[in-house]
Design brief:
alpha/beta, Rossmann fold, Arc Repressor Mutant, subunit A, 5-stranded parallel beta sheet, 4-stranded antiparallel beta sheet, 12 strands, about 40% helix, about 20% strand
């Protein structure tokens, strides 16, 4: 994988050209393709640090491409959606997009989103400062491999889902503020109308439930989320003496 190589999948060739002109001075190299079939092949090649994927594509739409990518690869993906189309954004996040950006957008904002996603997936911190593994009631998180095991069985998480669960598990039993979760999982401040965090948490709950995990994630209205510690078993009734 080339840590500077970015894949752009968009049928708007003019936009691809403009992104190339803007991203290259920022230190990135860009490969652009203009249909979903070619985009999927490139995304699965293992060459790229990150993909920027439009929803509306010829050949195969962005959702189809993302679904196929997520079956085989942890490649970080930022989706481009039509402005105001909340359905596209939610569907993209549910399938496994790391972030989204509505069109039209400012190139500077795209670069900020890209850098935030890449910071989460690059293990470039000194080994002594890396967070250690965490475990609770059958849940085991390994930051080095960014992997989750539930009762020994591996559960696939997106990078954002892993970051959320790690923060919640590190503070198990206490409320983790929404603002903090947005920073660690999305790399940005929480916005009032942004449902990205809620969708990631919903996906995480579903995966934990399907894996048979006991700790539950609960929302605390107006504050954030909490990973509830399992209740200790209660003693049975005492026999008469």
């Amino acid at each position: 994988m080339d840590e500077k190589l970015i894949l752009v999948v968009d049928d708007d060739e003019e936009l691809c050209g403009l992104l190339t002109q803007y991203l290259e001075p920022e230190g990135f190299r860009v490969r652009a393709v203009h249909d979903g079939v070619a985009g999927l092949a490139e995304a699965l090649s293992g060459r790229y640090a990150l993909a920027i994927l439009d929803v509306m594509l010829p050949g195969a739409n962005g959702f189809e491409v993302l679904h196929r990518v997520r079956e085989a690869s942890p490649l970080p993906v930022i989706m481009l959606t039509a402005r105001g189309d909340d359905v596209d954004r939610i569907v993209g996040l549910e399938i496994g997009a790391d972030d989204y950006l509505p069109k039209p957008f400012l190139p500077r904002e795209l670069v900020a989103r890209m850098r935030a996603v890449l910071r989460r997936v690059r293990a470039d911190a000194p080994a002594a400062s890396r967070p250690g593994p965490l475990a609770l009631d059958g849940l085991s998180l390994a930051p080095d491999s960014r992997s989750l095991r539930v009762h020994g069985a591996q559960v696939h998480l997106t990078d954002a889902e892993f970051s959320i669960l790690y923060a919640l598990l590190a503070g198990a039993g206490a409320v983790v503020p929404r603002e903090e979760l947005c920073r660690v999982a999305l790399g940005r401040e929480a916005a009032p109308e942004d449902r990205s965090l809620a969708v990631h948490v919903s996906n995480l709950r579903r995966k934990l439930a399907e894996a048979g995990a006991t700790p539950a994630i609960k929302a605390v209205r107006g504050e954030g989320y909490i990973l509830c510690r399992p209740e200790p078993p209660q003693d049975g009734p005492q026999a008469p003496v």
